[in-house]
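Quick start: read one record
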Amino acid sequence: MTQCSRGGRGGPGEPEDGNAPSTGRMVTTALIVTGNMVGAGILALPVNLGPSGFLPAVMGALAMWAIMTTTGLIIARQPFLEENENADLPTFFQAVLGPCGKWLSVAANLVILYGLLTAYLAGVASVAAGSFGLGIPEWGWLLLYFCAATLLASFGSGVLRRSNALLMTVMWLLFGALLVLVVPHFRRADLAAGDLTFFVSGLPILVTAFNFHNVVPTMCRTLNHDRKAVARAIWLGSGIGAFMTLLWTVAVMVTLPMESADGVSIIHAFQAGVPATVPLNQLIRSPLFVDASIGFAVVAMTTSYMATGVALTAFLKDVTGERVRSRTAIWLLTFLPPVGIGALYPDIFLKALNVVGGFGVGTLFGILPGVLLVRQGAPGSRTRRLGWLLVGVFACVLLVELAQETGMLQISPDVEYWSAHRFH
């Protein structure tokens, strides 16, 4: 397989000593991956995947993390990104897969980036509106958050990398506080209970939860295309993100009932399209937990919002090329559509994440990397077999989301089943 590397005196594929990134730079870059992962997905996953049961949710999350990290490494190890410093994903896929690859990547990336920015705005707005009794509508919270988060995202990748470590530290502290506060509310549950049919419907959100790939070109540039540093940053960053996501998913699933008469449950949150922190606030009823949950949601989504905003800005510059030179025009194209859609449809949080995973992430960071391996691998080789496996997995995710959006597949939580498997 070709490698993302910086050629030097030591031979092809070995970085020059002067260009080798420091450990601190590698770690801060890895935290961008974590920040990009731990956003809306960590708040949505317990709600969207919870009704499938404890074991399906945990095992499915672990498998998807491994698959998504693999596709991220496939993209990072392509020499084109080193040879073309200013290129982003559309130019990359055009070079390696032709014009069809470019325009398919453009369409999928627009779905991903605009969908994620919209989900982050709607997610914070729903958390704030559901936690504060100030009479401010969701669209009002959305606009307030948009102004603050977009200001941070507008400063570019340099500020993102330098501020991300601080934001991640704050997020970890708030995350730890949430876990401490929910532990007294843990309940016994039937961990063997599961609904594999519903698990199928949660595949798109599972893909979204482990997506970080849009920052890969920026990572390669930041780390001087040092293949070892890039690989370490991806494994470290995605590993931290996966650990936090799994820990939070488990904590929510052993705290909230799957179904309850008062509506404070995972299934009711799924039906209402709200993050897991909303029913947890209703269950725990602690001012400290409310503050910590809001802070965690805001910081988690802000780190992802900043990374996604930077990625979309670079993406639009790459797509428009010389046709649009105005920075203001690029800024407006980046941030106005998400805030407009979010203000018009404030309950779009979970819906947006499903569309992003099923149509966008699955195509751009699943199917296309698989096609890449099929084309690069020799007939019968392990590389080509892995490529076909990735194409098959993500084609299934795409078909599931397409069937759900068109009404051909309608899967709902099995309330009757979970009523018989309540917490003790």
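The CA atoms of residues 88 and 217 lie 6 Å apart.
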